[in-house]
Structures are given as C-alpha cells and as structure tokens.
Amino acid sequence: MAQKVAEKTKRPVGRPKIEDADYNAARARKMEADAQMAELELLQAKRKLVASDDVAGAWVEVLAAMKAKLLAVPSICAPICATETDLPTIQSILENQIREALDELSSYQPHEHAGRTVVTDGGDNGGDANAEAAAPSKRGRVGRPRKASVIGS
C-alpha cells in the first residue's frame, strides 16, 4: 500500500509534455526570431550591416562638406576672375575650382574628417586654395599704454 501512495505522489522529472499547438507555434516563431537576430548581429560584426542612424549621420556630414566646398568657390575664384577679361579663361577657372571641390568630395570619408577642415592639394588656378589656416590671433591690448598713476603726489 505504501508503494501505491508513493507512486501517486511522485512528481514527473523534467519538463512536462506540452501538446498545445499554440505553444509549439509560438516557440517556433521565437526560435526563428532568435535565429534572425543572430544573423543580424553576425552581419553587424562583419561590418556588412550598418545602423540607419549612422548612415543618416554620414550623409549629413557629406552634404555639409559639399555645401561648404561649393560656397567657398566664389570667394576663391572672385579675386582671380576679377583681373581676367577673357571669357573662356574665366570659365576655365570656375570649372577647375568646381572640379577640384567635387574630386575632393568624391573621396570624402565622414568618419575620418569629423570636426576637421581639409586643406586641398591644389589646382592650377593659382588661387589661395592651398593656403593653410592662419594661426589663432593672440588677443592683447591695442593702442598706447596707459599712464602709470603716481601714488603720493
């Protein structure tokens, strides 16, 4: 009799059998989703997958660099073109400057240029596009020195 009571109170070992089709379908979906996430993580580790925020940020940087380069064309070309009277020469100067800007932008790497300005390696227009940025100015007093006040007079 003691054996029969022990067999009835004995709990099964391990996970109970689940016959529910909904549970099995949900488990299959979860396993599929886990596999897809693992594949995405692998692609990201292999640098084959990039976050959309990173792509958008890189495009913002590229377009900002493009805007800066194209807005610099008039200030670079104006002094050169001011002395020219020959229309084909002026056109050539402008085309060379635009090509130089576009060539530099074609090899632009946003993650390498973040926060820096790039000095071009020049064109044949004789402009000051190759000039490096001026050293920061040292602010000091301007004008003649103040008169020293005499104490005790």
Summarize the structure.
The protein is mainly alpha-helical.
Q: Keywords for this structure?
A:
153 residues, mainly alpha, 0% strand
- Overall form: elongated
Instruction: Indicate the percent of residues in helices.
Output: 55-70%
Give the uncertain stretches in residue-range form: 115-134
Overall pLDDT score = 74
Order of helices and strands: HHHHH
Structural class determined from secondary elements: mainly alpha
Helical region count? 5
Total count of strands: 0
Distance between the termini: 124 Å
Rg over alpha carbons: 36 Å
DSSP strand (E) fraction? under 5%
The major beta sheet can be summarized as: none
Explain what you see:
The structure is a single chain. The chain is mainly alpha-helical. 58% of the residues lie in helices and 0% in strands. The longest helix has 31 residues, at 52-82. It starts with a helix and ends in a 40-residue tail after the last helix. Residues 115-134 have low confidence and may be disordered.
Please give the structural blueprint:
Elements: H1 2-9, H2 21-45, H3 52-82, H4 87-106, H5 110-113
